[in-house]
């Protein structure tokens, strides 16, 4: 069936044993007290991970894409204007979703590898004196390019012109791995999922919603039922769901929060930074370039790495899988064939990351890439060794 | 945490060990061959359970409600007319969903406990000479009342006036437990889920779609992205999903199909009939009445049973849970307080059903119901004994 | 593969989910701190279940039979005399083991269905003025006949003649289900296993050893290595095992103790008494007889029940398994064909026991036993209902 | 609780998911047909792994040490002479066991790092013209030193003087990882366990016994019951065990055999050779020495590696565990403090081995070992790359 090598795709991530066990729940009556008493603290704990006190957590049995749809349909009406920048596959897809829902999408086209263009947002918002723009949509961590955008800069851009638009943020591949400050950044809806930083199976969209966004429900005319915020909030308030809840994921979420809080969110973020920096040291040692254009854009959860001219990144990831049984992220969209990706988020240790680096290094050597075998691994080893103060084993 | 008593809610159902193991899948790259080779036969096998050769299986990481929404948004446009009968909680909810999506919903109000009114459908369709009605929506098994409707009669009603409307059927709590004949009944979209007859965790909406319904996609203007049929079909065709797939459920589905086919669908249906009949024998022995108005409406997956005048069904189900640790279905909607429900579907044996009957009997006696302790159990025992030819143990 | 019916054999018992999860442990280095820190509290907690403060817990990766062998080989020498009464299959097997190990076994033959004959022990010990008898061996709960013996009476018999013999007790099928008072009863070695009251997989012999028995090690000449007490105690003292430990069972044991202490040992015992009494009410209602000769001998973990003259108990248990998929205990040894057994120990609820009673009742009716269908179930229901004060669901 | 790093101790080994699932078996009646039908093919399949057609497989719920004890007590009598060479911890322990069982043990003392001295055996056997030596005991793979001995050479030494002694072989840490030829080598009893090459939990001793050894039972006077061959064979013949069987391990064994045969035993052996060779390349690159004295003695399942003069191997393994969360084997006995061990057996891939090498390399660098960081990893990478023909992913 499968070997025991970790995956290095940027999600779904490796599920630690503790969470695999937590999700092995026999069927319970979701209308009975056991479940009811489980749900409330899960919602409360999740808020902390978003960095929110005032937000409302809303989850759906769906993927992150469903979360995007929920954000849009609960707060907007056909014809409403939204402002988005396209700088990768996932911002592209969110744009597509908005267009299909009949929104007027003002798109700022950016190079893949760049991040959210706060200055251009500022300009567009300032120009929108009629306040037609109802929401600004930002992908916090563009999984396709390994770029983390500066949400607080976007917030500042919005504040600069005192624009009343809502701020929607896709944090699917950043939440619970990199710091997120829902309240401080003035986010109105943040959308995440169970299968990345939470280290669970795929199947739960997880949103945090501000009071301002909740107020927008009243006027939002896009049709919705499955993804209806109000139905979910009302049902949740009495411990239930408007339909059958994903029991296994709710129990998994409870244990995921336990794990995150036991390690400490700051330690979780620091671990991700360290793992990412190890991968970047290796990349530099190989003489390869990141897709992310500059250090302040580097993601701590995924690195997209250009293959040298004349090489095909798909051949590389195929070979790594076929010859060594290890999955890496393929190049998506514009990056197809040009870049491969190393996911380094979730339940991962230095040791596991080194195995990924050793593997892709062998695969590159097999395909005659101009790299020195071992160079990336030893650069990462050197980095991981230095300044270590706490044991790895708290990682999972 | 929990005891090992079975649940007798009409879903989610008791998950057999074999499927619990099948869903314990470590993360894989969903873009890699292992997953790709898994998906196709799962879709193919599922078609057999729907009784279809020409249909297209489409699944979403969602609940059955999501499946309803997918059915409607992919085939209809705002303002389109649909014809529905309301005879229980789930037909009610589907009506609500249609209304929220801006459809013109022609509702035939029926008594709870009755089934789909084929004759009234016939009349309404015959009167609709302009063919404004785009779809007829029917709940095959109304989980709230324990009523199974005759879909072939509805089809005949449609054929009688040669009406071109599509036929949408909710078979969430009937599929894989009671016979379903998608092709023979001329169904256009049938909607089910993973957590009932398939005995899996909640989280996957499962649809079968006819060529006629697929053709309707082209003109359907209701917005959709997460639930878009085309996106899913295109991605499935190359072995993938348009977003992260629910890996664990797909693998679970593969094993669920193995179990169903090993037992044999006809044996599965016969087992459900036998279990249901045992529950009905017990109900008669108690001197209680089913909500379902007549034998041809009796569901083989759930029985809704009226409590005697002056008793509160909620007190009964609460007591059964608190005193004996067993969950039964509460009375929903109009039946709230008036009826309790015994779910008898999925991975159940005679022996398990007897434990449920023994429990609710004790609970009724504790609350001074006018029943003879043991009467229901012995009636069911007598029935289960007679004419047994094959061993129970093949059940799961 | 298997259905979800409980088993009603007197062990191994139904494993609750919580313990199945607890035993799902990936390999760890058994010489590393994680394991070391786990073992000590497990040993300490186990002592409480034996009712001992002064005893030493010693476990081996083996079955209960291995525990018997360890008891004998660590404390006795070839030719040593032991006193035993034979009143069932397990006392018989222990005798056989002693004989194979070259001991001089003085056997008091008793009727199957009787218990340890304290008066005859008293006589034999009083007559042994030379104190040749080194140990008295008693089976606390004779699993073959459903007889619980009075250990404190045996102790009194020993004290009456101030006899220095050690007292060895087999409590494999009683410990953690019925009260055990190692210290108060003056037991020197008690032998149990993981697969009965502890509700775990088979594979761990669990012993409690008195200081007096530990002192006997010094002179004991029977050869031993795998089962050597000293090696195990020395290794345990530094957190290890003298060979690879059964990691999964040690972690399982930790959680089993948690479960037992959360429910409360007294509640566990009371639950077993209630379940057993329910079975006995049913037996009486059927008009059948227990093998146990009198009420003070009734076991709370297993009931052996005579089939009527002219019936074959093997045909009954075979039929129950083949027709209904439920396992009951066969008649062992002298009881082969004459009696069947219902195990009612471990992770069981009233509800589960009722399913067992309903099943064997159907099986008896199928085979034309002269019983009233439903009579046993309703007798047990009536009993289970009365005087209930706490919910069942704490059972597991 | 734990991270997801593999362990690199020489057993128990990393349990692959497939076997973790296979061992998750709910309690069954071990006297019922399901179990009976499972056991026979397991015993048959196990024979193939031993390389035997004529041997009898006998298993006990115990560790490998229990298997040694079973071998000795079933075939020998107090005072019998056995011939053994001591060249590591496990040969030492077997000697100790024989001595405790009152055997006359003729010991050939060898340097740790050497293997079974066929020439000295030949001399001793030739000198034993009275044929007092009843058995020659050999440790195939000495886990403490990483030495594999040549069993066929020992056989030749025995044949040279036509000596009738039996040949007992400890293959606990070699079977199912390195070739074993029970019949061709004329082995009489081979002893293994579940937790090494079979990749299962600890708890099952697995023996293969020749007709000649079975014949020796008749005269063997060492006491035994739990480990009695005859009891086990008789019970196995009718599908049972003489006491409660370790159900979970039997089912696990069934699946382990499936995995081994699917990969193909020759491929399993080749994989172990490749993994071991990778570790040896790394060792050479570090400039360190193996404890094994010469290449023909190199074990393919474990490498014992001397630390440089002035370093403490315990500090190294402690640091690797504490700083990086990875377990390596400590130096045992004479090697305590002088050598560490890398286990490379069971469910392992090139990729996993590289992570172990990267880790111990970092740990050595942290402790100022005179090695070049990355040197070992790149040597192994270079080796693993070359001549690869089949994908890794079949490994587990």
UniProtKB/TrEMBL annotation, chains A, B, C, D:
InterPro entries: Aminotrans_V_dom, Aminotrans_V_PyrdxlP_BS, AspGlyoxATase, PyrdxlP-dep_Trfase, PyrdxlP-dep_Trfase_major, PyrdxlP-dep_Trfase_small, SP_NH2Trfase/AEP_transaminase. One of its GO terms (molecular function) is alanine-glyoxylate transaminase activity. Keywords: Aminotransferase, Pyridoxal phosphate, Transferase. It comes from the Bacteria. Residues 29-281 form the Aminotransferase class V domain. The modification N6-(pyridoxal phosphate)lysine is found at residue 196. Pfam families: Aminotran_5 (PF00266). One of its GO terms (biological process) is glycine biosynthetic process, by transamination of glyoxylate. Its cofactor is pyridoxal 5'-phosphate. Substrate binds at residue 341. Belongs to the class-V pyridoxal-phosphate-dependent aminotransferase family. This is Serine--glyoxylate aminotransferase. It comes from Ruegeria profundi.
């Amino acid at each position: 069936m499968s070997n025991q090598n970790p995956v290095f795709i940027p999600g779904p991530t490796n599920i630690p044993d503790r969470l695999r066990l937590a999700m092995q729940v026999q069927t319970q009556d979701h209308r009975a007290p056991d479940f009811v008493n489980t749900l409330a603290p899960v919602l409360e704990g999740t808020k902390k991970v978003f960095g929110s006190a005032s937000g409302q957590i809303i989850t759906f049995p769906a993927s992150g894409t469903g979360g995007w749809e929920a954000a849009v349909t609960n707060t907007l009406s056909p014809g409403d204007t939204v402002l988005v920048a396209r700088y990768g596959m996932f911002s592209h897809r969110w744009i597509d979703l908005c267009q299909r829902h009949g929104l007027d999408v003002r798109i700022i086209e950016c190079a893949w590898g760049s991040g959210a263009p706060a200055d251009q947002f500022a300009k567009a918002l300032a120009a929108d004196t009629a306040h037609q723009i109802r929401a600004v949509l930002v992908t916090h961590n563009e999984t396709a390019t390994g770029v983390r955008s500066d949400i607080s800069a976007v917030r500042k851009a919005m504040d600069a012109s005192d624009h009343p638009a809502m701020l929607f943020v896709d944090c699917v591949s950043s939440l619970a791995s990199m710091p997120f400050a829902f309240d401080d950044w003035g986010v109105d809806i943040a959308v995440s999922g169970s299968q990345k930083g939470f280290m669970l199976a795929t199947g739960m969209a997880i949103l945090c919603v501000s009071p301002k966004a909740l107020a927008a429900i009243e006027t939002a005319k896009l049709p919705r039922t499955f993804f209806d915020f109000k139905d979910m909030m009302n049902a949740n308030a009495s411990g239930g769901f408007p339909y059958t809840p994903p029991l296994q994921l709710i129990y998994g979420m409870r244990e995921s929060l336990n794990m995150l809080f036991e390690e400490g969110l700051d330690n979780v973020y620091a671990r991700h930074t360290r793992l990412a920096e190890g991968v970047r040291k290796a990349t530099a040692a190989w003489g390869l370039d990141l897709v992310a254009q500059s250090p302040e854009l580097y993601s701590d959860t995924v690195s997209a790495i250009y293959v040298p001219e004349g090489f095909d990144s798909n051949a590389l990831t195929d070979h790594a899988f076929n010859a060594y049984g290890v999955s890496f992220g393929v190049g998506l969209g514009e990056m197809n064939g040009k870049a491969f990706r190393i996911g380094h988020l979730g339940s991962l240790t230095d040791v596991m990351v080194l195995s990924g680096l050793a593997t892709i290094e062998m695969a590159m050597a097999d395909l005659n890439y101009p790299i020195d075998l071992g160079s990336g691994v030893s650069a990462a080893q050197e980095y991981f060794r230095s300044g270590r103060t706490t044991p790895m084993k708290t990682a999972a």
